[in-house]
Amino acid sequence: MNEDLQLLIDAAHASAKIGRSFFRDDPEVWNKDDNQGPVTEADLAIDAMLKSELLASRATYGWLSEETEDDATRLTHDRVFIVDPIDGTRAFIAGERSWSHSLAIAENGRVTCAVVYVPMMDRLYTASEAEVAMLNGEPIKATLQSNLDGATVLAAKPNLRDEFWTNGAPPLARHFRPSLAYRLSLVAQGRFDAMLTLRDCWEWDIAAGELIVRQAGGIASDIAGKPLQFNRPRPMNNGCVCAGPNLHPQLQSRLKLS
Fold first, then answer.
1. N or C end of the chain, less CB within 10 A?
2. Which residues contact 35 (CB under 8 A, 6 or more apart)?
3. Cα–Cα distances in Å, from 248 out to 68, 145, 211, 251?
4. What is the largest CA-CA distance in the chain?
5. Rounded to whole angstroms, how far apart are CA atoms 238 and 124?
């Protein structure tokens, strides 16, 4: 196995140990500035552990995390860790099980290793550019669904407003999970046909999932159909549209924003 991938797997399990210790135990919660959502003491504890352990193992890599103040020196590194200590913090606070740890390594703007771990369900999604996407060690594949009518999509309700679509929203069967990383992984697994979010996406929410989808035969792009890029000066992408190879172009062609 790729050594970087094994490093991320070990780090995900260490993150889960911390996360479980705070889960449903009334962790302290703060609200971030500029309406950026809540953060808990669990997020911060995991972030501190990951930064210390991962950079100790890979001193030449840069660092980008939701819970660490951004440092532009990451842009001088060819390789960078892109981490969300807990993706789905609101679900974590509410005692729901569908939060995840999202860990990725990007090289020159492209993700090369990725792990998404949903610890309360013990679902470990992994991928590297040299290896297929896996769930708990078994290969996974995105669906070959080609018909928009009835295709299953993971998305927040506002994404299916008619105003965003040519000739109105397609007749998709909408579902929801709070973690973007988990949504992407579920598409890679073939549990759902697509996921989409039309708002700008922070890199740490989608970096790991993008590679897992790609190595499962799916496609993840921004809402204009452009490849997702990582370790940008402003670490955001213009939304995210993800589906199997047959459905993605159909979704893309119907979006008014493309």
1. N
2. none
3. 33, 10, 16, 5
4. 53
5. 27
What fold, for 3-139?
Answer: Fructose-1,6-Bisphosphatase; Chain A, domain 1 (3.30.540)
What are phi and psi for residue 62, nearest 5 degrees? -85, 180
DSSP string, 92-104: HHHT-S--EEEEE
Measuring CA to CA, how many Å separate 219 from each of 8, 64, 129? 23, 24, 14
Cβ atoms of 86 and 42 closer than 8 Å: yes
Residue carrying the six token digits 């973007």: 180
- State pLDDT tens for residues 17-39: 999 999 999 999 999 877 778 99
Half-sphere exposure of residue 97: CA atoms within 13 angstroms, side-chain side: 5
Quote the CA–CA distance of 258 and 243 in Å, as a whole number: 15
Q: Which alpha helices (H) appear in 29-110, and where do they start and end?
A: 41-57, 89-94
Query: Mean pLDDT across the stretch 5-15?
Result: 98
Q: Angle, nearest 10°, between helix axes 3-22 and 41-57?
A: 160
* Residue ranges of domains in the chain: 3-139, 152-254
Q: Which CATH number fits domain 152-254: 3.40.190.80, 3.40.50.2000, 3.40.50.300, 3.20.20.70?
A: 3.40.190.80
For the whole model, what pTM was predicted? 0.97
Query: C-alpha 3: how far from its chain's center?
Result: 21
pLDDT recorded at residue 202 = 97
Q: At what angle do helices 180-189 and 203-215 cross, to 10 degrees?
A: 10
- Reported as type and span, the H/E element at residue 154 is strand 152-154
How far apart, in whole angstroms, are the C-alpha atoms of residue 225 and residue 112?
A: 20
